[in-house]
Design brief:
Chain lengths: 113, 116
């Protein structure tokens, strides 16, 4: 079965600094990959997705992610973090057996002024 | 509707009671999912409905958990004889179904269950 690992449980960055959140997946074929964000007290919002084609995908709120097959990674990046980006970020992969998403354990982002 | 609606948003119950959580998916979305999110943890898959096909119940943690869906509309997740470890946010999501299986899920705001 497909799985997702987010190695960083908690990350703190200064406002205006760049950000990279790591995600590694386990899947033999080309995976379908997603990043979701969960702000305090809210549901999950889709940031971006990768199905095929260009390995650098753009999302909402200035986020981007790069699919690297050789590293089995799909890291999320943002060049300049805003205080409103403080949230929990989840990487997910489609479990083609279940037709559902398998989520990583999440990375909590704190933004310092 | 415009989004996925879940009710109640908050539920406090006593251990041993039964609870029902409701999910109203986006109109036209034939796939519906339930996930559980315990405090500070990721999302656990519970169950998946797709049209009139038999649901995938492989994520349900025990026989105290069950779910139903009426056609391609509302779904109800029922937890019988609740235990304290059932305390969590229960998230519902819906999606269109792609042939590739790359379904894009839209989530509701969740139902927070607290078992005392």
């Amino acid at each position: 079965a497909q799985s997702v690992t987010q190695p960083d449980i908690h990350i703190t960055v200064s406002e205006g600094a760049s950000l990279e959140l790591r995600c590694n997946y386990s899947y033999g074929a080309t995976p379908y990959l997603f990043w979701y964000v969960q702000s305090p007290g809210q549901g999950l919002q889709l940031l971006l997705k990768y199905f095929s084609g260009d390995t650098l995908v753009q999302g909402i709120k200035g986020f981007e992610a790069e699919f690297k097959r050789s590293q089995s990674s799909f890291n999320l990046r943002k060049p300049s973090v805003h205080w409103s980006d403080a949230a929990e970020y989840f990487c997910a992969v489609v479990d083609t057996g279940r037709r559902a998403l398998t989520f990583g354990s999440g990375t909590r982002l704190q933004v310092q002024p | 509707g415009a989004g996925v609606s879940q009710s109640p948003s908050n539920k406090v119950t006593e251990k041993g009671k039964d609870v029902e959580l409701r999910c109203d998916p986006i109109s036209g979305h034939t796939a519906l999912y339930w996930y559980r999110q315990r405090l500070g943890q990721g999302l656990e898959f519970l169950i998946y409905f797709q049209g009139n096909s038999a649901p995938d119940k492989s994520g349900l943690p025990s026989d105290r958990f069950s779910a139903e869906r009426t056609g391609e509309s509302v779904s109800t997740l029922t937890i019988q004889r609740t235990q304290q470890e059932d305390s969590a946010v229960y998230l519902c999501a819906s999606s269109l179904v792609r042939v590739s299986g790359a379904n894009v899920l839209t989530f509701g705001a969740g139902s927070r269950l607290t078992v005392l």
